[in-house]
Design a protein that fits this description.
The structure holds two protein chains of two kinds. Helix content of chain A is 34%, strand content 14%. Chain A is an alpha/beta fold. Chain A has a single domain, classed as Collagenase (Catalytic Domain), CATH 3.40.390. The model of chain A is unreliable at 1-5, 10-15 and 33-40 (pLDDT under 50). By secondary structure, chain B is an alpha+beta fold. Mean pLDDT of chain B is 87; it is low at 1-26. Classes of the chains: A alpha/beta, B alpha+beta. Chain A binds chain B through residues 49, 66-67, 69, 104-121, 123, 139, 141, 153, 156-157, 160, 165-166, 168, 179-183, and chain B through 28-38, 66, 70, 74-78, 80-81, 83, 105, 107, 112-114, 116, 131, 133, 144-148, 151, 166-168.
């Protein structure tokens, strides 16, 4: 049986230097893009959705639900590590107890890739998630995706859990992982992009 | 004492019945945010559709979970999404072999609210791009809509009006005539 080796969710201390380096790369890339393509670098900072986690630098526990196929478990952990390597406040941690997020995968006949099922936004007490947020992946629509595409969708869903809403973007300008659809799969570099990080910083 | 026991028993029974309900999620209503395909054209919708039809939704036939409708085993043991099944009277089949009366699924907004999907208006002419789920319920074939809200459009005075608005743009087919879109469907 082929087993997928899961990446370990990194600690904040372990990736602080990488976060600083990442920030420098993002600033340099954004500056270069705006010089090379003036006029296309319109901002795509995702707006807040109305619910978020408590604190300015929250530790957000991700637990595995059942059913959850290995490919989507990998995508969720990879997405957590991708966010953890950015300067965005907070830290995702895989931990089965005290779950803030629980991840599932199943086959749905409806036309969606992944969803974040949350308490009703109107239930958010003072703007904070009152209960565990569920992330669900749809096998029927996503099993044909590459490993990278699955991770991009998972980064998008963790963005919602952070508190980000959808946004329009343009790969040639300033990409964001929070746009719906396939365009984000082919943007330069990889998500989360600078505007996604700014979106999280605006919330926390 | 005896009356207290009877009242307690009745209360316990009513509470357990309330908890069972219709077999759906017992928890409070939730909301959902979806990511999925964004269709750029009618041709793309058509490519993913088993049937394209004009008809009208006449009633909600039932409310189930996907696990109850398709069988939990087909979902890998999951309960799936809560769905509402709409009876649709088909007036004109443009593509495929949709029966006169079909069931079309929608996410049940009473149990899972989402901005990505709108409930069907009843007794209005609509165009549907449908996926055959290979399931029947009460003798009627069950279809799902291609692309959430992108795969159904309102019809008024011979023109289509998209319900969906994704990434700031109206969905495919918006403003086109029914005749032109029907002619473009394979």
């Amino acid at each position: 049986m082929n087993r997928v080796r899961l990446p370990k969710a990194e600690t904040w201390e372990g990736c602080t230097v990488r976060k600083i380096l990442w920030s420098a790369v993002v600033v340099a890339t954004t500056t270069a893009l705006s010089i090379l393509n003036p006029g296309v670098a319109s901002a795509a900072v995702p707006p807040p959705i109305g619910c978020r986690y408590v604190g300015s630098d929250p530790t957000i526990n991700i637990a595995y639900g059942a059913p959850l196929a290995e490919a989507y478990r990998y995508a969720a952990v990879d997405a957590a590590n991708r966010w953890n390597r950015t300067p965005a406040p907070g830290q995702f941690r895989v931990q089965q107890t005290g779950a803030n997020i629980r991840v599932f995968s199943f086959t749905s006949q409806e036309s969606w890739w992944a969803q974040v099922a949350t308490p009703l936004i109107s239930e958010c007490t003072n703007g904070y998630w009152p209960r565990t947020v569920e992330i669900e992946f749809n096998h029927r629509m996503m099993d044909g995706f590459s490993t990278y595409q699955k991770s991009v969708v998972a980064v998008h869903e963790l963005g919602h859990a952070y508190g980000l809403d959808h946004v329009e973007m343009n790969c040639a300008g300033r990409p964001s992982v929070m746009e719906q659809g396939t365009e984000k799969f082919s943007c330069p570099l990889s998500p989360p992009w600078n505007d996604d990080v700014i979106g999280v910083q605006n919330i926390y | 004492m005896r009356r207290t026991t009877i009242l307690t028993t009745l209360l316990a029974a009513s509470l357990s019945l309330a908890a069972c309900g219709d077999g759906s999620r017992a928890e409070a209503p939730r909301s959902a945010i979806f990511d999925g395909p964004v269709y750029a054209s009618v041709a793309e919708l058509d490519a993913d559709a088993d049937a394209v039809a004009i008809g009208s939704a006449t009633a909600v036939h039932g409310r189930l979970t996907e696990g109850e409708l398709y069988g939990a085993a087909k979902l890998g043991g999951a309960e799936g999404l809560p769905i509402a099944l709409y009876e649709v009277q088909v007036k004109n089949t443009i593509k495929g072999a949709a029966a006169r009366t079909i069931l079309v699924t929608r996410i049940d907004q009473r149990r899972l609210a989402t901005a990505e999907q709108t409930v069907f208006p009843l007794h209005r002419d609509l165009m549907f791009f449908l996926r055959d789920t290979a399931t029947t319920l009460d003798g009627m074939p069950v279809y799902s809509v291609v692309g959430m809200d992108q795969g159904w459009l309102r019809i008024a005075e011979g023109r289509l009006h998209a319900v969906s608005r994704t990434n700031g743009k109206a969905g495919p087919g918006d403003g086109q005539t029914v005749v032109a879109v029907a002619a473009s469907v394979r």
